[in-house]
Design brief:
alpha/beta
């Protein structure tokens, strides 16, 4: 494995690789080759989810990497996520087992609740992954909310740890208030919070709270708008990769703007999961451990914060799924 500064230690003593490969929106046909290539380059952390619809393809890639001897299962950190339609305690284990089966694994290193969004159950045989709509064929399809207490879902998540199906559990897209509420009823505390974080959404207070509570933080969408422009959820003009503060740091270190953003993310104590489909970018995204941003550069990048959230169910729920579903307000 790489040297220790490539990891964040979780509160249970796990070593969480600071840079992983995010698999959201990576086409299934690419993954069986991309994953082994990433392993060859040094990646050991793969961030997956039922909702991405590509876990079987990730599984093929992982099996190919393992059978080639490029790494052992113990070297890998594989994360998956519980989808919104499986929050009822009766469905949590079924959902986890389906992800394990698709990924070709016996155990997950981390299983996260994907959103604090509780939607009506859709059986696997009806549709998998189920997506956001309850009935896509309805005249005006929408999301169908059902009230399920987070304590009930979390109790079933804890059952996965006790059953040996997952090593640790955590949450995504939770606020500090939600985390406090969860910790008050948890017998196994959340190990990891995964949230959107980039210089236009620094979430300083949330990060500080998590670090004080010994909850590791994974920053998704580290490049900000780039994942969202194709989805019409962001404008080209919102690219943090082109921000003068970032490009100035890139030019002074002889690095790409992307490397500056990833270095900022790991230097502030977060794990980051950039997505890419090219070998050149895979390599570039890992090459951030041989330089440091100065305190002045870190402060300038922190100062870019404008509270710009690209991944917000209150907005995309209404635009794409005919349902207003705020969770951050």
């Amino acid at each position: 494995m790489s040297s220790p500064h490539h990891f964040i230690e979780t509160s249970d003593g796990g070593f969480f690789p600071s840079v992983g490969l995010g698999t959201w929106k990576i086409p299934s046909e690419i993954l069986p080759d991309l994953i082994p290539s990433a392993v060859e380059l040094g990646y050991r952390h793969f961030d997956c989810a039922c909702d991405y619809g590509n876990e079987p393809a990730v599984g093929k890639g992982l099996q190919r990497a393992l059978s080639s001897g490029a790494c052992s299962r113990d070297d890998l950190w594989v994360t998956s996520k519980l989808w919104n339609t499986y929050h009822h305690p009766d469905h949590v284990r079924l959902a986890c087992e389906r992800s394990l089966s698709d990924l070709g694994l016996d155990v997950l290193d981390l299983y996260l609740i994907h959103f604090p969004v509780t939607l009506a159950y859709v059986p696997f045989e009806e549709r998998y992954p189920p997506g956001w709509f309850f009935d896509p064929k309805a005249p005006n399809p929408s999301m169908k909310h059902v009230p399920i207490p987070i304590a009930d879902t979390w109790g079933a998540m804890e059952g996965l740890v006790r059953a040996g199906l997952v090593k640790r559990i955590g949450i995504c897209n939770f606020t500090t208030g939600m985390i406090r509420d969860l910790k008050a009823c948890a017998s196994i505390a959340p190990q990891v919070l995964q949230v959107e974080m980039h210089p236009y959404l620094t979430q300083q207070r949330l990060l500080r709270y998590c670090l004080e509570e010994k909850i590791a933080v994974t920053a998704f969408s580290p490049f900000g708008a780039s994942s969202y422009v194709p989805l019409n959820m962001a404008g080209e003009h919102e690219s943090v990769l082109r921000d003068p503060v970032v490009t100035a740091a890139a030019s002074s270190h002889g690095r790409s703007p992307g490397q500056i953003l990833l270095r900022w993310a790991v230097q502030r104590g977060t794990v980051t999961i950039p997505k890419t489909q090219t070998l050149a970018h895979l390599q570039e995204n890992l090459a951030i451990f041989d330089f440091e941003l100065s305190p002045e550069e870190m402060a300038k990048i922190d100062g870019l914060d404008r509270g710009r959230r690209f991944n917000d169910p209150a907005e995309f729920g209404e635009k794409a799924f005919n349902t207003f579903y705020p969770i951050f307000d």
